[in-house]
Amino acid sequence: MPELPEVETVRRGLAPAMEGARFAKVEVRRRDLRWPLPKDFAQRLTGKTVAGIGRRAKYLLADLSSGDVLIMHLGMSGSFHVFQEAGKKALGRYHQERAQHAAHDHIVFHMSSGAIVTFNDPRRFGSMKLVPRAKLDAEPLLANLGPEPLGNAFDAAMLARACKGKKTSLKAALSDQRTVAGLGNIYVCEALHRARLSPKRVAATIASKTGAPNERAERLVEGIKAVLNDAIRAGGSSLRDHKLTDGELGMFQHHFRVYDREGEKCPTPGCRGTIKRIVQTGRSTFYCPVCQK
Ligand SMILES: [Zn+2]
């Protein structure tokens, strides 16, 4: 499943094609995504201008001139592609010529900029939803999300407060979207390795009894921000279905330090450990038992 860096990469790909442009035509080829699209979906978009495209955790949020917000989620296998109508001006590095394989293009946005934006999703766990901006705070998809890890407000004090008294493992705590939003299996493993903290460590141990951050919390926040920024710079990680909107692959999977590297030498300078795989709450965890304490 795409995590924050993959979704942010998609946002950056969609922005030049959609921001400031109108939906000239909206084709809905399949309504039955993760949940059915409303009957008036195309009608509520057509003629409206996209004021901006933002992101909250793994959700893309397009602000429309109608006052609606279009919430988009990639699910397991969803992807957006940006094509350019023949004869029109290119729209930056993300545009590409129309490709052939359109069987799973469930939604097609024809933008007034000449860009054609397709949403392709073979497994149909992705979703779209229109919500009035005034009701966004109460939107159940977004209501229980923790802080944005790349936001200025997210720091060691905030993370320590969230982990105070938690008896679960750090791996489980960081995978919980209420602790911090947008992290999944890959980036939790990578952040813990950078912070030299064991995924099995009890979450509460990054905070004092009163919830004040200790040095571990500082290291962990640094590790989370660093790995996410590095991954975004590399266009995200291409595992299974993630692609950039121009069809290119994100490259961060080549920079994993522990994820999917069981049996390999730990990349921490001076560490002689070997990456180990364990299973925590049903998911694989990769870590170095020597330098991650
Ligand atoms: Zn190590």
Please explain how this structure is put together.
- The protein is built from seven helices and ten strands.
- It has helices at 4-18, 41-45, 140-143, 156-163, 170-175, 185-194, 215-233, and strands at residues 23-28, 50-56, 59-64, 68-73, 79-84, 105-111, 115-120, 127-132, 276-280, 283-287.
- Helix content is 23%, strand content 20%.
- The longest helix has 19 residues, at 215-233.
- It starts with a helix and ends in a 6-residue tail after the last strand.
- Strands 1-6-7-5 form a four-stranded antiparallel sheet. Strands 2-3-4-8 form a four-stranded antiparallel sheet.
- It has 293 residues and is an alpha+beta fold.
- The site of zinc ion has 7 residues, from loops.
Describe how the helices and strands are arranged.
Blueprint: H1 4-18, E1 23-28, H2 41-45, E2 50-56, E3 59-64, E4 68-73, E5 79-84, E6 105-111, E7 115-120, E8 127-132, H3 140-143, H4 156-163, H5 170-175, H6 185-194, H7 215-233, E9 276-280, E10 283-287
Antiparallel strand pairs: 1-6, 2-3, 3-4, 4-8, 5-7, 6-7, 9-10
Helix pairs in contact: 1-7, 4-7, 6-7
Bound molecules: zinc ion (ZN).
Zinc ion binds next to loops.
Give a short synopsis of this structure.
This protein is an alpha+beta fold and 293 residues long.
Features:
single chain; 293 residues; alpha+beta; 4-stranded antiparallel β-sheet; 10 strands; 20% strand; globular; binds zinc ion
How many individual helices? 7
Intertermini distance: 28 Å
Major sheet summary line = 4 strands, antiparallel
- Overall, the morphology is globular
Low-confidence stretches: 89-100
